[in-house]
Specification:
The protein is of the alpha/beta class. It has one domain (about 1-145): P-loop containing nucleotide triphosphate hydrolases (Rossmann fold, 3-Layer(aba) Sandwich), CATH 3.40.50. The chain is built from four helices and seven strands. The protein has helices at about 10-25, 40-50, 95-100, 140-145; strands spanning about 1-5, 30-35, 65-70, 75-80, 100-105, 120-125, 130-140. The protein has a seven-stranded mixed beta sheet with strand order 1-7-6-2-5-4-3. A hairpin with a 5-residue loop joins strand 6 (about 120-125) and strand 7 (about 130-140). Helix 1 packs across helix 2 (about 40-50). The protein binds adenosine-5'-diphosphate and magnesium ion. The site of magnesium ion has 5 residues, from helix 2.
């Protein structure tokens, strides 16, 4: 586990850049937890930019899933599960998670049963208007090493 307090969007972006450098070229699932306005989408924008996504990343709330090409040609999947609350049917996400891709999921607890176990989870907390607390956790030793000392 590692924890950071940031005081601006720029500092949040710097954390995303730091994580991007470590996951570049790897397949990875990243779960972003936190209230509305915590900075989940802001984090994905910076992460995508650092991974070479040329398109502007917007909140996928109304489409649930958007996929972008990274610098290396592989995909960055950005999912927002907010509108999937209470849905129990199998939505066929395995394909996305099995893909040789980086997947980032906002509101993951709404589809918890459909998510692979191995993931980096990022908990975002609003401290005040511009201050955020980030807590990074890896579900196994390898992923824990990825988030140590970002
Ligand atoms: N330190 C910070 N990190 C991230 N966002 C911040 C920070 N300070 C202020 N903000 C603002 O908080 C909002 C976060 O929105 P967004 O990323 O869409 O949140 P979420 O996806 O979690 O609902 C943005 O308006 C952003 O400018
Ligand atoms: Mg969002």
């Amino acid at each position: 586990m590692s924890e950071y307090i940031v005081h601006s969007v720029q500092e949040s972006d710097a954390l995303a850049l730091s994580l991007a450098k470590r996951i570049r070229g790897k397949a990875m699932l990243i779960l972003l937890e936190g209230d509305l306005g915590a900075g989940k989408t802001t984090f994905v924008k910076a992460l995508g930019k650092a991974l070479g996504v040329k398109k502007v990343i917007n909140s996928p709330t109304f489409t649930i899933l958007k996929s972008y090409q990274m610098e290396d040609g592989r995909l960055l999947h950005h999912m927002d599960a907010y509108r999937l609350e209470g849905i129990t049917q199998d939505l066929g996400f395995e394909e996305i998670f099995d893909d040789d891709a980086i997947c980032v999921v906002e509101w993951p607890h709404f589809i918890r049963d459909q998510l692979p176990v191995d993931a980096i989870s990022v908990q975002l907390e609003i401290m005040d208007e511009t201050t955020r607390r980030f807590i990074f956790r890896g579900s196994n030793e390898t992923l824990e090493a990825v988030v140590e000392g970002l």
